[in-house]
Amino acid sequence: MTANPISHYDVIIIGSGSTGTPTALSMAKAGLKVLVLDRCPSVGQESNKKAIGGIRATHSDPAKIRLCLRSIEIFSTWKETCGDDIEWYQGGYMYPVYREAEEKTLKELLAKQKAYGLNIDWLDARQMLEVTPDLNPDHLLGGTFSPKDGSASPLLASHAFYHQALLHGVEFRFNEPVEEIVLNGGRVAAVRTNHATYGADVVVNAAGAWANEIGKLVGLDIPVHPDCHEAAITEPVAHFLDPMIVDIRPAPGSANYYFYQHLTGQIIFCITPSPNIWGYDTRETSSYLPMVSRRMVEIMPRLKNIRVRRTWRGLYPMTPDATPIVGWSKEVPGFMLAVGLCGQGFMLGPSVGELVSRLVTNQTVPEDAETLEIVSPYRKFGGPEKLQ
Questions:
Q1: Where is the FAD dependent oxidoreductase domain (predicted)?
Q2: Burial class for 153, CB neighbours closer than 10 Å (0-12, 13-18, 19+)
Q3: What CATH number has the domain spanning 7-51+155-224+321-374?
């Protein structure tokens, strides 16, 4: 038997990561009484702290472009508006091209990307080398450059959102795994943890790679499954690289890889495995560094002999089309989905949080309509986007 709620909230959010905490802040700003529940001992302790920090609006999906343009506004003005240094750096994103296949792919996307407000251009080889002189010039055909994209510290940003949420009255309960979502007449009524039961008319599933487990508590099978990606960081070196470099050429073991230089000098890099590595195993592998380092040194010889300090693996909560799932459950009134951000929760989280807040408060704007259609839980899932 479920105990009576010890307190009641307008909204309970499950998960204090890249999506849950910004969502809580947006809702509190809208005047809602919000509780965030997390099984971890503090904020952002699952996938958030394993993010490498890239923030781009350079996508092929219109919803992601719009959402990330808004996120960039939030990140880039955070220090000015909130006072916290989150190590925002606007170095841009660069996609160098060495083969006609990738040239065709990127050029075909340009018109759509520009139509949705993305600041992006095709640069020829000479222009690419002017922006990034250390690129390998051999067979370089050109590439795209998006100067407004950037990076920030996931650790600093998650705590900055957390402290702002506290200032706006959000309550957090850590070390409280959710054991039951209580329904009354088929709709959300409360959430029971290992510690207590809390009442709410709305529950937001922002559980990242564990979204499907939370969905099962209300009888939903949410198509979100964890895919493991590996990353690494080097020793700090003198600054020489501004943009995030993304090489979309597939190779044995990987679909693409990318790297950038942090404000403090370290090179941070990651790879997209191919085929996917499904499951929750986050142990580092012996194959990652040899595979990615050869490709990185080939595209940027200056990286040779920079020492790697550590590697790690994190989980990407993937959907069938590599696009988030955001919206109300039709089967369970009061149950909101903000899941499946596909390893891009850090860059999408702030704007997704605002979107979810507008949905809950019935304050959506006309510009939300297309985005909500694309991220709908009830869309027909197609293939993955080209720049996932």
A1: 10-358
A2: buried
A3: 3.50.50.60
φ, ψ at 327 (rounded to 5°): 155, 175
Mean pLDDT across the chain: 96
Residue tagged 């996917």 (tokens): 276
CB 226 within 8 A of CB 315: yes
Element housing 100 (H / E): helix 100-115
How far is it, in rounded angstroms, from Cα 335 to Cα 200?
A: 10
Task: Tell me what percent of the chain is helix, strand and coil, each rounded to the nearest 5.
Answer: 30, 30, 40
Which pair of structure tokens corresponds to residue 257?
Answer: 């890889």
Fold for the domain defined by 90-149+226-317: D-Amino Acid Oxidase; Chain A, domain 2 (3.30.9)
Which pTM does this prediction carry?
0.95
Please check whether residue 328 is in contact with residue 336, taking contact to mean a CB–CB distance below 8 angstroms. yes
pLDDT, position 383: 74
For the chain, give every domain's residue range: 7-51+155-224+321-374, 90-149+226-317
Name the residue among 259, 329, 270, 341 with its Cα closest to residue 22: 341
Query: Which ranges in 307-366 belong to alpha helices (H)?
Result: 345-360
77 touches 90 (CB < 8 A): no
